Amino acid sequence: MSELAESARRGWMGIAVGPISGPPIDWQAIRQRRLDERRSERDRTQQQLEDIEAEVRRLEQDRRRIVTPDRVLWWGIGVLVVFSLVGMIAPLWAMSRTPTDFTPHLKLLSWAFAVIFGLLVGYFFIYAWWLTRRKNNARPAHVR
Known about the structure:
Radius of gyration: 40 Å
Number of strands: 0
């Protein structure tokens, strides 16, 4: 016998290894068990995927609800547009003309500016109050 075949027969550390004896191996049962494990793993993975997709849908709905502007915001944009017209554009327009009597225009612009500025500040306070009242009463959608 060759030296390589002898070392293979002897096994690890030179100990002679004989034929393995014991009950016969049921390869069909092992194959079935592995198949069952794969199926259960696939089912768990499918359930996890469905859970993740449901969570993504919930988060998208929450994001859409948070990001979508409400009517109070549009009121604020309207106040800002009027404020910019009265506070910046009207004075520039009045100053670009050569006035014959500037005092009535200046008084009108000052009063209009003060009124619109008061509306803007009032809007900020009302919106802040509305947001704090809304957050105290609101609960997350998944808690309901």
